Automatic annotation (TrEMBL):
Region forming the signal peptide: none
Short name of one Pfam family: FCD
Entry-linked PANTHER family: GLUCONATE OPERON TRANSCRIPTIONAL REPRESSOR, TRANSCRIPTIONAL REGULATOR, GNTR FAMILY
Keyword Transcription regulation carried by entry: yes
SMART domains named in the record: FCD, HTH_GNTR
Protein name as catalogued: GntR family transcriptional regulator
Species the sequence originates in: Mangrovihabitans endophyticus
């Protein structure tokens, strides 16, 4: 019988704060106070401080020289730069992993795509983001380069936070149609075409984000 091992208090606080930041419950510029967070979450100061340090590494919380902490503010420059970096890293991982995919991997890709679309239909942005990210992760991990996946995870978290898309956002369509096209190409044995289509997702996504957020 399998069961989920409860996370550490620090991991639980990281997860809670990350979700609040990504969903916009903690808006950009929000002042982060250790004592208030600890009281609200029912934990001691130590896991709160450790969680803040982790989220600072992820780029979700800014720590000023005077040690005050705020939820990272959004600018056009850092939004587009993050998408560029994510495209380079994930694109490399996808290219390295695509030739190692098996039918089992393809089944997982199809399943994640169904979960992605269904989560959006239900309005569950966090679940949709996780399923969408897992679609890429399946291929990147097939490359055997786990260090690259760790780097992609950090950039994805920061990019998701910056966009804070609702379930109704038209931006999701870039990923939905891109994933479906990739699956068709992989099923046809066109791995090079799948890599090109994957890279095109980031080109299209960047253009739509630029117009959507900063027009």
């Amino acid at each position: 019988m399998s069961f989920a091992v409860p996370p550490t208090r620090t991991a639980a606080v990281v997860r809670q704060l990350r979700n609040e930041i990504v969903t916009g419950e903690l808006p950009p510029g929000t002042l982060i106070k250790d004592g208030e967070l600890a009281a609200r979450l029912g934990v001691s100061i130590t896991p709160v401080r450790e969680a803040i340090a982790q989220l600072s590494v992820e780029g979700l919380i800014d720590i000023a020289p005077n040690r005050t902490r705020h939820v990272t503010r959004v600018t056009q420059k850092n939004a587009l730069e993050l998408i560029d970096v994510m495209g380079v890293l994930a694109g490399a991982g996808f290219e390295w992993g695509v030739d190692n995919l098996t039918e089992t991997h393809l089944d997982l890709l199809r399943r994640r795509q169904r979960e992605f679309v269904e989560a959006l239909r239900e309005g569950n942005v966090l679940a949709a983001g996780a399923a969408g990210a897992d679609f890429s992760t399946i291929v990147i991990l097939a490359s055997g380069n786990r260090e690259l996946q760790s780097m992609v995870d950090l950039v994805v978290a920061r990019t998701t936070r910056i966009l804070a898309m609702t379930a109704e956002s038209d931006l999701w369509n870039t990923w939905i149609t891109g994933h479906e096209a990739i699956i068709r190409l992989l099923e046809a044995g066109d791995n090079r075409g799948a890599v090109q289509r994957y890279r095109q997702i980031y080109v299209d996504f960047r253009a739509r984000v630029e117009a959507f957020l900063f027009d």
